[in-house]
Structure formats: C-alpha cells, structure tokens
Amino acid sequence: MKSGKAVGPYDIPVEVWKSLGEAAVEFLASLFNRVLESERMPEEWRRSVLVPIFKNKGDVQSCSNYRGIKLMSHTMKVWERVVEARLRKVVEICEQQYGFMPRKSTTDAIFALRILMEKYRDGQRELHCVFVDLEKAYDRVPREELWYCMRKSGVAEKYVRVVQDMYERSRTVVRCAVGQTEEFNVEVGLHQGSALSPFLFAIVMDQLSEEVRQESPWTMMFADDIVICSESREQVEENLERGRFALERRGMKVSRSKTEYMCVNERKGSGTVRLQGEEVKKVQEFKYLGSTVQSNGECGKEVKKRVQAGWNGWRKVSGVLCDQKISARIKGKVYRTVVRPAMLYGLETVSLRKRQESELEQSEEGL
User: What residues does each domain of the chain span?
Assistant: First the structure.
C-alpha cells in the first residue's frame, strides 16, 4: 500500500506500520489470522468518512456530478489486500476485462479498439460501436448479487463470509464544507475507496456479462466502461439490448443519456441504434478511457488534447519549474512525473503523422 494516502476516522496511516518493520508484520499477521478464524473484523473498521469529489463536469450544485470516496481504516485496507491476493488465486476473470487485471492497462484496451477500427477503415467496411455507461455502477451492486457471483466464481464459502463481514453494519458520515453529517448505515453497493472493491466489481461484471459478451475486441470492459462492436447496426443493437437485459435484471442500470453510438466508415442511410425504443446518441468522436477516438480515423483532436494536457500539467507545477532556487535535477524529475506523462498518455496507440510529431515536439520545446 502506498504512503501519503488520506486516513480514515481513526487517523492511523499505513506509514505507522511501515515504520515498525518486522514487529508490525508479526502483529498484523496475528491480528489477521484471528480475523480470518473468527470471520469477524474489529468494529472500528466498519466506520468510514465519505468525501464527495466533484467530477469537473456539469453543475456543481448537482449531487449526481460528485463521486463519493470513502476514507477507511488503513489497517483494514491492508487486510483487504491480503483477501484480494487469495481471491485472485482462485478466480479467473474473462479476457474481455481490462480493468484492475495484472499486466493489463487502459492503453491495451485503447490499442485494441484503434486497431479494430483501423482494419475496418482499410477494408472500407462499416464498424458499429456502442459505448455503454452504467449509472452509479459501484453504488448499485446488490449485496446478495455480490455473494452469488463470488460463489459462482469458485470462491470458498469461508472467504465469502469474510467479505460479507466487511459489509455488515458498515457506517459512514459525509464530510462537507460545513462539517460532518450524522452517522448512517450503508446497505447497498461496494465501498468506493476500498482496496478490495475493484476486484469484487470485476467478479460481478464477469458473471453478469457471461451469457452475452463476445470475444475481445468485440466486447471490451474496463471496470464499468463497456464497448460493444459489430459489423452491422442491427447486430450491435441486438447485442446492446441483450447486455442491457442481463445487467438490469440483476440490479445494474444502463444510462440512456450517456450511452453513445459511433459508426466507422458510415454509408448513407445506415440509421441509428435504439435502446428500448429510445434513440442512442450518435457521435463522431468519443473519449474512451481518456483517449479520443474519431469515426474518420484521424487523431488530430487527440494530439491537440494531449498538448493541452501537457500545458495544464505544466501550469500546475510552474511554481517549481520556474523557481531559480530549485535545481535542474529536481525540475527534471517533476517534469517527467507530471507534465510528460500527461502529454504522452495513450499516444503509443496512435499512428502519428510527421506533422503531428512535429507539433508534439514543438510543444515540449515550448514548455
């Protein structure tokens, strides 16, 4: 677990355990063995602080534009890491899931989608893509559905009970500008900010999509970001409806307003995609996992956005980069950590033209 993370309600950071060295290892091993044997964790771990984080889009006064992150006990998070490591040994997640999987990243999914689109453009054939958005995916997962999916994935009953205990009698308070709310129970959804939640969500999505997903790259998932591709509009519409039914009958919900449709090499009169009779928004470009893909195969907009992201990163640390008292070595380290990754994100998946390479080089020189 990384240092410097926000602490939960008891203000004990993970750095405490790291500083104690071998003594901490022995103590935590003894504590975790008792928790595993009794299948009951300390009551203090059930409390958390919920902090609403603005998504930087939409109305700041709308609660739907905030993501709630739970600040939980760091000691519990270490315990979650132990449980996660054991679950990963027995649970096999489908190849279509790119999120939170070893040796997979966002750029793998972006690259797979770009290559698929490129092949269909080269062959002058249509490719239909629907980018599915799930409403409040983590917060909507029914607890009973989670236990069912864990058992179906082959998780031993003891570890199902251990995870159930993590969610029993969980309580939280909301931290806001004027203080904290009264404490209340949390009875649905996964813990946002939990170390174990991403893998639990992957288990749920793996089971819910089992009957309807196709081979990668025709169906790809990165946690709750789903893209469905097909050679025909009718087929992608059918696959979308089958996926919607499979997810919504088990407690999830597909967003009608944020799900979008894009057609590569579109011919005249190719029509639109409908979801339960409602027309899905048709777009010429889509920001997929932070990288803009365009229906015409161009990448000019993505290059411009990368340049802008580089400048935004530079502005955040300009106080350091422009300070003459700070050594060139430190400035270089800050630049390589903050500015350059923002500018180059996802570009390894793009076939750049000479003009676009020059644009990136000139922008970096300008920084």
Answer: 14-294, 300-366
